[in-house]
User: Which sequence fits this backbone?
């Protein structure tokens, strides 16, 4: 692996032997001091098609939360997830819709820096037929949708979250630049994709940490497999 091109850009980087990124479904600002003490430095938060003023949700990263996370010295990775139902990941039309929504929210609301990534979640175990007939066209739609709404084409790189089989198929099709292996060891292709070392993030089992005597913080730890996982930093966004 010493000859991998990305390693030449980060000659002093070593893969951490414990999780340094975490993902969570709610606002994480109150937990950041604890997470920092535990060695985490990347917060993974969500975009969603319900990200608008009519349907507020604590799941969705807001501008205020983003600035607080960055101010605390954490980098941010974002993932677009609106469903874990294959019915709504059904080919290019759904991908087009999600790509547009993600691109607009990233550009107009968060002002996410160009060159960083938006991961798109395929949070279910599916067979090769559905991956080929539904998920690969979905990612073609994602790319086309972001291209429509983002000035200058596609300012964001594309990531995929899902099973090993999903990640491998999207990789082989050349439809993403970043790969996040879901913590579902029984899903198709998990061991093969893990062993391939193509993954950028590898999710581990959910944990809870005591934030106070009355509060616990639930999150998923993630191993960071590459120095560039599509994150953005305070110096890029402020």
Assistant:
């Amino acid at each position: 692996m010493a000859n991998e091109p990305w390693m030449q850009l980060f000659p002093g980087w070593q893969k951490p032997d414990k999780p340094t990124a975490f993902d969570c479904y709610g606002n994480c600002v109150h937990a950041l001091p604890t997470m920092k003490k535990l060695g985490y430095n990347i917060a993974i938060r969500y975009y969603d098609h319900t990200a608008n003023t009519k349907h507020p949700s604590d799941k969705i990263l807001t501008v205020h939360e983003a600035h607080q996370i960055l101010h605390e010295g954490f980098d941010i990775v974002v993932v677009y997830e609106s469903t874990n139902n294959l019915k709504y990941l059904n080919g290019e039309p759904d991908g087009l819709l999600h790509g547009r929504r993600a691109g607009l929210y990233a550009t107009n609301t968060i002002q996410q820096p160009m060159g960083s990534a938006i991961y798109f979640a395929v949070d279910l175990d599916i067979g090769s037929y559905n991956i080929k007939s539904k998920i690969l066209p979905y990612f073609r739609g994602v790319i086309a949708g972001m291209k429509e709404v983002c000035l200058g084409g596609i300012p964001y790189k594309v990531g995929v979250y899902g099973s090993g089989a999903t990640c491998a198929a999207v990789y082989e099709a050349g439809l993403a630049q970043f790969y996040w292996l879901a913590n579902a060891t029984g899903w198709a292709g998990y061991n093969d994709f893990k062993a391939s070392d193509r993954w950028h993030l590898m999710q581990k089992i959910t944990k809870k940490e005591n934030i106070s005597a009355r509060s616990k913080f639930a999150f998923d730890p993630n191993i960071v497999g590459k120095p560039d996982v599509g994150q953005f930093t305070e110096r890029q966004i402020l």
